[in-house]
TrEMBL record:
UniProt-recorded name of the protein: Ribosomal protein S18 acetylase RimI-like enzyme
UniProt KW Ribonucleoprotein keyword: yes
Gene Ontology MF annotations: acyltransferase activity, transferring groups other than amino-acyl groups
Residues making up the signal peptide according to the UniProt record: none
GO cellular component terms listed in the entry, alphabetical order: ribosome
């Protein structure tokens, strides 16, 4: 078996989609993309993917997505390998991707410390050993939660003094600013820079603005929001479902304690069910400081599986 490694591009999208399905059939993965979605990810700034090939067949991948956080440059570094091939292939790929990410950092944000984040399903000891050898340490846990949409309650009236709207692309920067303020103090970087926000929330085929809802106060400020996406392959990995995914949910500090997030989650689920979705999914930090886990459980979500978030930190360059 002779493995070769090269950068992945648009021409590899179909192979990436095929490999993603093979891996996901074996174990939960934090990134499963269709060919179209992979092409869209490649268009995001600060993105690079490498692939391992066995006689022309893609058998492993690793990549990074860079973003600028208030106090660091963050690289989401993920990867996986066909379970029929040696897991050591992933170690080679991740090592090369980390080197590429360090070079990217030196060219773009050398004055900021670096945070590398890697994710894998809980219980994968081989993965933990491999990333540990690269300097990563397990730091946080995230729950992937699912809900069935067979009996979603009809939403009640909008809270007094607030206005309900769907996601309006014209308000994108207002919504991004609110989101970044809501998640400003969250661990391991939850802010969204302009480029990634526009690629993820405006341009991608997975966006569902008509299923995404926003509450604003009398001054026009964002009080709460819950956004919806729909991926070609369900995020939960439960094939056979049309699944709505809620990537971002938040409430401005001055409006917390009013049940606004719960209200908007319910509206997203109700609208998605009316459109034919049969399930919903989201992920949440196991120690979310705003008590989001309870909000989601009351909305009918249950834990489906757990991901470990591994972190590697390096100081700013000279």
């Amino acid at each position: 078996m002779a493995i070769s490694v090269r950068e992945l591009g648009d021409a590899d999208a179909e192979e990436f989609g095929r490999l993603s399905a093979v891996i996901d059939a074996d174990h939960p993965t934090p990134l499963r993309l269709s060919a179209t979605e992979f092409r869209e990810v490649l268009e995001l700034p600060g993105t690079r993917f490498l692939g391992a090939f066995d006689d022309g067949t893609l058998v492993g991948w690793a990549g990074f997505l860079a973003s600028v956080q208030p106090e660091s440059q963050r690289f989401l570094v993920d990867g996986d390998v066909d379970p029929a091939h040696p897991f050591a292939v992933l170690g080679v790929l991740l090592g090369r991707v980390l080197d590429a990410a360090r070079a990217w950092h030196a060219d773009t944000e050398p004055g900021l410390p670096v945070l590398f984040v890697n994710r894998a399903a809980s219980g994968r000891a081989e993965h933990e050993e491999l990333v540990g050898a690269l300097g990563f340490e397990p730091e946080r846990y995230r729950f992937l939660m699912v809900a069935d949409l067979d009996d979603v309650p009809t939403p009640g009236p909008v809270a007094d003094g607030l206005t309900l709207t769907e996601f309006d692309p014209e308000d994108s920067e207002l919504l991004r600013a609110c989101h970044n303020e809501v998640f400003r103090d969250y661990p391991n970087g939850a802010s969204a820079d302009r480029d990634n926000w526009e690629g993820f929330m405006l341009a991608a085929s997975h966006v569902r603005h008509h299923l995404s809802f926003v509450l604003t106060d009398a001054d026009g400020a964002v009080a709460s929001y819950a956004f919806a996406h729909e991926y070609a392959v369900p995020v939960s990995g439960r094939d056979g479902h049309r699944e709505v995914y809620l990537p971002y949910i938040g409430t401005a500090a001055v409006h917390r304690g009013r049940g606004l997030a719960s209200d908007l989650v319910g509206r997203v689920l109700h609208a998605a069910a009316a459109e034919g979705c049969t399930s919903a999914s989201l992920d949440v930090d196991a120690e979310n400081p705003a008590g989001a886990l309870g909000v989601y459980e009351r909305a009918g979500f249950r834990q489906h599986h757990t991901f470990v978030e591994y972190a590697l930190r390096e100081p700013a360059g000279e």
